[in-house]
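Dear support,

I submitted the protein below through the web form. The confirmation email said the job was done, but the results page showed an empty box. After a refresh the structure appeared. I'm attaching both so you can tell me whether what I see now is the final result or a partial one.
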Amino acid sequence: MSIVASFFLIDRLLVDQLVENAEVVVVKKLFSKKIIDPYWDLLQTHGTSLPDLDYSGYNGEVFINVLQFLSERRGINLNRSELQAQAEEISRKRGESICCSLMRSSFNITIN
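What the results page shows now:
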Protein backbone atom coordinates (compact mmCIF):
# COMPACT_ATOMS: atom_id res chain seq x y z
CA MET A 1 0.00 0.00 0.00
CA SER A 2 1.28 3.49 -0.81
CA ILE A 3 0.18 6.80 0.61
CA VAL A 4 0.94 10.15 -0.97
CA ALA A 5 -0.45 13.20 0.77
CA SER A 6 0.12 16.91 0.37
CA PHE A 7 -0.79 19.25 3.19
CA PHE A 8 -1.69 22.93 2.85
CA LEU A 9 -2.72 25.43 5.46
CA ILE A 10 -5.31 27.83 4.05
CA ASP A 11 -7.68 30.44 5.38
CA ARG A 12 -11.04 28.85 6.13
CA LEU A 13 -12.71 31.57 4.06
CA LEU A 14 -11.02 30.16 0.93
CA VAL A 15 -12.53 26.66 1.18
CA ASP A 16 -15.61 27.60 -0.88
CA GLN A 17 -13.31 29.05 -3.55
CA LEU A 18 -11.45 25.72 -3.61
CA VAL A 19 -14.75 23.94 -4.24
CA GLU A 20 -15.63 26.35 -7.06
CA ASN A 21 -12.19 25.92 -8.65
CA ALA A 22 -11.85 22.15 -8.17
CA GLU A 23 -12.47 21.19 -11.80
CA VAL A 24 -9.66 21.14 -14.33
CA VAL A 25 -10.29 23.34 -17.39
CA VAL A 26 -9.10 22.12 -20.80
CA VAL A 27 -8.75 24.80 -23.48
CA LYS A 28 -8.57 23.17 -26.90
CA LYS A 29 -7.01 24.85 -29.90
CA LEU A 30 -6.60 23.61 -33.44
CA PHE A 31 -3.42 21.57 -32.83
CA SER A 32 -2.99 21.75 -29.09
CA LYS A 33 -4.71 21.88 -25.77
CA LYS A 34 -3.90 23.70 -22.57
CA ILE A 35 -4.81 22.36 -19.15
CA ILE A 36 -5.59 24.96 -16.52
CA ASP A 37 -5.93 23.83 -12.91
CA PRO A 38 -7.26 26.74 -10.83
CA TYR A 39 -7.47 24.50 -7.76
CA TRP A 40 -3.68 24.08 -7.47
CA ASP A 41 -3.14 27.69 -8.50
CA LEU A 42 -5.32 28.80 -5.57
CA LEU A 43 -3.56 26.47 -3.12
CA GLN A 44 -0.10 27.59 -4.23
CA THR A 45 -1.03 31.28 -4.22
CA HIS A 46 -2.96 31.48 -0.94
CA GLY A 47 -1.88 28.38 0.96
CA THR A 48 1.14 27.50 3.00
CA SER A 49 2.66 24.19 1.96
CA LEU A 50 3.36 21.87 4.86
CA PRO A 51 5.68 18.82 4.76
CA ASP A 52 4.42 16.13 2.38
CA LEU A 53 3.72 12.54 3.30
CA ASP A 54 5.09 10.11 0.73
CA TYR A 55 5.48 6.71 2.31
CA SER A 56 4.85 3.17 1.17
CA GLY A 57 4.49 -0.20 2.79
CA TYR A 58 5.05 -0.29 6.52
CA ASN A 59 5.44 3.49 6.87
CA GLY A 60 2.02 4.06 5.25
CA GLU A 61 0.47 1.67 7.74
CA VAL A 62 2.08 3.62 10.58
CA PHE A 63 0.39 6.79 9.33
CA ILE A 64 -3.02 5.05 9.38
CA ASN A 65 -2.34 3.86 12.93
CA VAL A 66 -1.39 7.40 13.99
CA LEU A 67 -4.73 8.69 12.59
CA GLN A 68 -6.58 6.03 14.57
CA PHE A 69 -4.58 6.82 17.73
CA LEU A 70 -5.29 10.54 17.44
CA SER A 71 -8.99 9.87 16.99
CA GLU A 72 -9.46 7.28 19.73
CA ARG A 73 -7.08 8.48 22.42
CA ARG A 74 -6.76 12.22 21.86
CA GLY A 75 -10.13 13.13 20.33
CA ILE A 76 -8.52 14.59 17.20
CA ASN A 77 -10.46 13.17 14.27
CA LEU A 78 -8.80 14.04 10.97
CA ASN A 79 -11.25 11.88 9.02
CA ARG A 80 -14.32 14.06 9.66
CA SER A 81 -14.71 17.80 10.06
CA GLU A 82 -17.12 20.68 9.71
CA LEU A 83 -15.83 20.95 6.13
CA GLN A 84 -16.78 17.37 5.20
CA ALA A 85 -19.37 18.43 2.59
CA GLN A 86 -16.83 20.67 0.84
CA ALA A 87 -14.18 17.93 0.95
CA GLU A 88 -16.59 15.44 -0.61
CA GLU A 89 -17.53 17.91 -3.37
CA ILE A 90 -13.86 18.55 -4.19
CA SER A 91 -13.22 14.78 -4.22
CA ARG A 92 -16.18 14.26 -6.57
CA LYS A 93 -14.99 16.98 -8.96
CA ARG A 94 -11.32 15.96 -8.95
CA GLY A 95 -11.64 12.21 -8.60
CA GLU A 96 -9.22 12.06 -5.69
CA SER A 97 -9.44 11.94 -1.93
CA ILE A 98 -9.47 15.24 -0.08
CA CYS A 99 -9.45 15.66 3.67
CA CYS A 100 -10.31 19.09 5.03
CA SER A 101 -9.73 19.28 8.75
CA LEU A 102 -10.21 22.08 11.20
CA MET A 103 -7.71 21.97 13.98
CA ARG A 104 -6.85 24.14 16.91
CA SER A 105 -3.94 26.46 16.31
CA SER A 106 -1.73 24.23 18.43
CA PHE A 107 -1.89 21.10 20.53
CA ASN A 108 0.57 18.75 22.14
CA ILE A 109 0.59 15.04 21.43
CA THR A 110 2.50 12.58 23.54
CA ILE A 111 2.60 9.02 22.30
CA ASN A 112 3.60 6.48 24.91
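Response: this is the final, complete result; the empty box was a page-load delay. The chain has four helices and four strands.
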